[in-house]
Structures are given as structure tokens and as C-alpha cells.
Amino acid sequence: MDLKRVKDYIYWLYYQYLLITCSYVLEPWERSMFHTITVTVLAMVVYTAYVFVPIHVRLAFEFFSQIFGGQTKSTV
Amino acid sequence: MANPSAVCNGHLHHQKQNNNFLKSGIYKKNGITKGVKKNGVSNGTLYKKTFIEHFEQAPMYVAVLTFLGFGVGTIFGYLRDFMRAWGLEKRNIAAEREEQKDFVPLYQDFENFYTRNLYMRIRDNWNRPICSVPGPQFDLMERVTDDYNWTFRFTGRTIKNVINMGSYNYLGFAETDVNALKTVTIELQKYGTGICSTRQEMGTLDKHVELENLVAKFLGVEDAMVFGMGFATNSMNIPALVGKGCLILSDELNHTSLVLGARLSGATIRIFKHNNMQSLEKLLKDAIIYGQPRSHRAWRKIIILVEGIYSMEGSIVRLPELVSLKKKYKAYLYLDEAHSIGAVGATGRGVVEYFGMSPDDVDVLMGTFTKSFGAAGGYIAGKKDLVDFLRTHSHSAVYATSMCPPVAEQIIRAMKCLMGLDGTTQGLQRVRQLGKNTRYFRRRLHEMGFIIYGNDDSPVVPLLLYMPGKIG
Q1: Interchain pair B469, A30: CB under 8 A
Q2: pLDDT band at A70 (very low <50, low <70, confident <90, very high)
Q3: Residue B45: what pLDDT?
Q4: Do B466 and B62 contact (CB within 8 A), yes or no?
Q5: Where in the sequence is the domain holding A10, given as residue range(s)?
Q6: ipTM
């Protein structure tokens, strides 16, 4: 019973996604093409975020802490 | 009305300015009533009840998503056009023959880009044939498409009891109840359906005279004239009333019939912003100060074309301000009450009654019988001189066939019901019920979170959807 409600809710979410991006009006092959492209772009965004964001954050943190706090850091 | 001998509220120079204008009635300037206040009681505002109109803007994310949706549609449109141009897909639209390629093109491919690529995908929602009377529920013919809306075929079945949200049957007079239509059947058997003549030749029947007298009584004017088609009433009579050398000031969102009539007349047309009295006043002032474009002579006639209820926005015209403006600048007013006659006002007599004004204020009252009366045709009402002039000079009276008798009888019975002349209070009940339904419907839709345009009392309710995916 609960599983059916969850499935209905997911289907409703999928339906809302189709309506909002206007892919509800596309023919089936166009819809598959659109889904493929969207999923590919989203996957690339997620991958880029996963690989690069921690490094960027760490570098930014070091940069700012060097300005405000760490003048005593010496390379000797 | 202000009393000229009343005690002023302390501003002497305002008092001097007001004295010349007081005789032409109350009017508003920039939303401030310039009236003489007597002991703190003002001479009343122009509107007896509150005039609330909504035109709210959608939130930002809705606008962004709408553009996104159109972007997706456009990209796929280009893709499909590319495939069609290179022969990868069959072309279903009209195209010229190979032999005619050197002539002036008949069909420009890009002009119909949106029709071909966006409208075709969702066009199965419109123009569906119905097979019963458009009451609160009606029957639809089932229609399927095999090739994504390029062609349709009917399966032969009907879908029963579809809820009607879109027809103009405001008071429900388009009905099939046998008792209600008794008089219409009698007239149908007596007169038949065809007139086969124009009004001026042999087409004026006693039914038309009876109907015209009834319409004049209903509206409270001196005389009226009826025509066979509502659209033609506007487009054929405006050219009879105005000509070259006259000025037409028409609202931005007027109906096509008014625009066509204005263009056919040959007069100069100027547009003012929708329901915006400041814009109209500026145009009137410029017209009177500068006169005709090159010769600077005075205009022969200045006529203002407005509608009672605008069918696409659901907004009601600001009649009191309009009438005071027209009286101040001596212009004529042509009021098209296609949607408001029978639907607003305490007893259903239209926008004039809704604002509590007298029908003498409006020069030409025009309306149609298509919406609230469940029939077809239009009327023009006003002073007897005006209607007599139209009887001889209107293009519709000379060339178009007149209204057929059963339709005239349907209007007569609907109007008698509305006025209470058939002995029941059914007409008044219907008008009251319509008012209650309108307010309830608008309130509930608003509570549900939809964006609704228009005045709170107008039975026309535009609901904005925004995203192209949701329209289909």
C-alpha cells in the first residue's frame, strides 16, 4: 500500500518535470533525446562539483587565512 | 453634485478653478476628486461600490521556466525543420509546387515556425466538435490522431458529460427544455427559418418590430435596431456613423469587430492604453488642441469605442470616469456590451446599471444576443434619431439578411424571462445566481493559488497558465 503511494508520488514528480520543461509535448524519440542530453549535462555538473569544489574551497580557505591570520608562516 | 454656494474647505484658488467645471458634472483628475467639501463631507466618489481589479504578475521562477519551456520547443523546432528541409522527414505543411519556385513565394517557411512546431503539437485541445447543447455539461465527439496532430479522425464514440468551462452561456438560456422552447417551436412552424431578404427590402417582419420594442424597453432607451450577426453589427455600423475627418479613440484591447469597423470607416484611429483614463484624457486634449493632422481644422466627430467587459482580460470599463470625460470634451461614446448585457448589473441590464448610471449618458449602446440570451445577432440602441439614421444608412440594413424569426422569438422569450414579464422570477434568480457563482468561483480559484485576471464581478475569468507544456 505504501509502495503504491511512493510510486504514485514519484510518477507525479516525473509528470511535473515533463510539464515544466515542456517535454510533455514532444514525440517519444524527441523525449528520449531530451532526457539523454539533460541527464548527461547534469552528470557532468555533478562530477565537476565532486572533483573540483573541495580543492577550490581548501585553496580559498588557505588564501584568506594567509591574509588575515597567518603572517607568522615562514618558509624557512 | 456639488453645491456652488457651499463653504469651501479653505483653498481659495482651487475654488475658482472648479467653478467652470461644476456644470458639466463630477469628474476625476489623477484620481483626486476636486469637489467642494461641505463641513468635511465630500460630494462622494464616482464609484458606489469598490472597483477591484487584479492583474498580478507571475513570480520570477514561473517566468524563467516559461522561457525555458519555449526554448526547448524552439530548439526541437529547429531540429525538425532541419530534418524536413533535408528530406529526412515527411513534410506535412502546405508547400508550393516545384514549377512555381521562381514566382513570388506564397508560403514563407519561417513565418509559420511557431505554428508548425509548437502549436501543432498541442492543437488537439481546441476546436473540438460538440454534439449536445452547451449547458453546464455537454457531449464531445471522440477524436484521435495517429500522426501527432497533423490529421485527426473521429472514432464515432462520444464522451458524455464533460464539464463546460468555456462557453458564453452565462444565464443558461441555451437550453433544450421543451417547456421553455414552446413559443419558439410555434414561431418556427409559423414563419419557417429563412427570410431571404434584407431589412430594407422585404425582411422586416412583425417579429423584428416586437423584438426592437422589447430591447428598447429592456435597456431603458428610446429605440433599438437588431441585426442578424453580432460581429457584423459592429463592423457594418461604425462605418455608417463615422467617416473621413472624424477621430476614433479606441481601447488597446478592443475586439476585432470594433477594429475592423473602425478601419473600414476611413476615420483616423488613435489607441489609448487599456482602461486608462489618463491616457484617454491626454489623447482627447491633444485632439482638441491640435485638430486634424495637417490642416489643424477641428475634428468633425470624436467617438470613443470601448467594451463593457473585455472578453480576454475580464476587466470592466471605468464607465463613470469615461462619461464625465466625454461630457467635458464633448465626444461620443460607443459602448459594446457583448459580454456584459444580461450578465452584470442588479437586474441584468449591463454595465450601465452596474455603475448606477442612466442609459442616456451613453450615446450608442451596442450589444449581442449571442452570450447571455442564447441566440444570435446584435442590436444598437440609443436615441430615436440615431436609430432612424441607422435604419436608412447602415450597410447591414441594406445588404445583409435580417435575423430569422425563431431566433428572434428565442431572444424575446429570454428577455421576457429576464424582465419578469412571463410571470416568474426565474430571470432575476438566474442573474443573482450568476453573480454568486462568479464571486465564489473567483474566490476559490484565488485561494487555490491560481493567477486570475480581471474585475471581481466579471463572469469572464481568465486563468493564467504560463508554461507551454501545461497548456496542452
Answers
A1: no
A2: low
A3: 60
A4: yes
A5: 3-69
A6: 0.77
pLDDT over 80 at B92, yes or no: no
Decide which of B147 and B15 is more confident: B147
Mean pLDDT of the region B393-401: 90
Cell of B399: 445588404
Q: Domain count for chain A, please give it.
A: 1
- The answer to whether residue A74 sits within a structural domain is no
Contact B468 A25 (CB under 8 A): yes
To which H or E segment does residue A55 belong? helix A28-68
Per-residue pLDDT at B335: 93
Confidence of residue B300 (pLDDT cuts 50, 70, 90): very high
Q: Give the pLDDT of residue B226.
A: 93
Mean pLDDT computed over B30-47: 46
Torsion of CA B382, B388, B392, B396, to 10 degrees: 30
> What are the percentages of helix, strand and coil residues in chain A, rounded to 5?
80, 0, 20
**Closest residue of chain B to A19, computed from CA coordinates:** B469
Q: Domains of chain B, with CATH numbers?
A: 182-419 (3.40.640.10)
Question: Helices marked H in B220-274 — which ranges?
Answer: 230-241, 256-265
Compare all CA atoms of chain A with the CA of B76 and give the residue at the minimum distance. A30
Residue A26 within any structural domain of the chain: yes
Cell numbers linked to B284: 482627447
* B-contacting residues in A 6-65 (Cβ below 8 Å): 18-27, 30, 34
Asked if residues B302 and B246 have their Cβ atoms less than 8 Å apart, the reply is yes
- The Cα B331–Cα B303 span in angstroms is 6
Residue of B121, B126, B465 to mutate for A, most A C-beta atoms under 10 A: B121
The pLDDT value recorded for residue A71 is 60
How many CB pairs lie under 8 A apart between chains A and B?
41
Number of other residues whose CB lies within 10 A of the CB of residue B190: 11
Strand partners, B140: B130, B159
How confident is residue A76, by pLDDT bands cut at 50, 70 and 90? low
pLDDT of residue B29: 40
Whole-number Å distance between alpha carbons of B374 and B207: 17
A11 domain-assigned:
yes
- What the block records as the C-alpha cell of B370 is 449571442
Domain contains A76: no
